């Protein structure tokens, strides 16, 4: 089966290009399932119930989040949906859940796991231990397991890829908004990429208004960042998974 993963949707421009380009990509790839990281979808930080519903209506099956999960007071309401995931290694008392098992229209079970790194990121539990604990439960339900690893540094992401090689179908890096050219299928059958990019304004600084970002760098004074304007891009990956074994057959980046 094919799975489309859309990376880091940023604000209204990101949602608009998903509305425009996802139908075209769906027609081309014929996916069983669509996953999108949308932790920047509400004005660049966080998510709301209405935005989650908007993305579901556009054809997204499951939404993953990251370090901006709780930046908006509406977060808890959005996380009441079993199709909206926050990083599983948040403390257990945090609202929401970090994983789920879903059934595609074709009747295939797909598990999605959301994890967050700890280097230069908010304080969370160990993502490696969290992954091990979760997989004991998840692997009993399906071998088709997609992990969104929302992390800052490439070494932590690569370490997670090797740690989960052969245990999950894919480890897809998000958060830095800059796509890396290291997509591959690891030796034991896990698709991997350090960062799958972003979906939103192409003429800003990782999606934010470039003049405000430049002002911060030039003056050292904190700025209230805003989502950039101008043309947008939609980036992510298309995975091809063998549903019998859960092993990845291929991973390819897209940028439209």
Would you kindly provide a written description of the structure presented here, covering whatever features stand out?
With 256 residues, the chain is of the alpha/beta class. The chain has one domain: Purple Acid Phosphatase, chain A, domain 2. 25% of the residues lie in helices and 25% in strands. It is built from six helices and 14 strands. It has helices spanning 11-29, 49-57, 75-78, 127-138, 154-164, 210-219; strands spanning 2-6, 33-37, 62-64, 84-85, 99-103, 109-116, 145-150, 170-174, 184-185, 191-193, 200-201, 232-233, 235-241, 248-255. The strands form three sheets. A six-stranded mixed beta sheet has the order 4-3-2-1-13-14, covered by helices on one side.
| Alpha carbon gyration radius | 17 Å
> What is the mean predicted local confidence, pLDDT?
96
Low-confidence stretches: none
Give the biggest sheet: 6 strands, mixed
| Assembly context of the chains | single chain
Distance between the termini: 22 Å
Helix content: 25-40%
Succession of helices and strands: EHEHEHEEEHEHEEEEHEEE
The domain count comes to 1
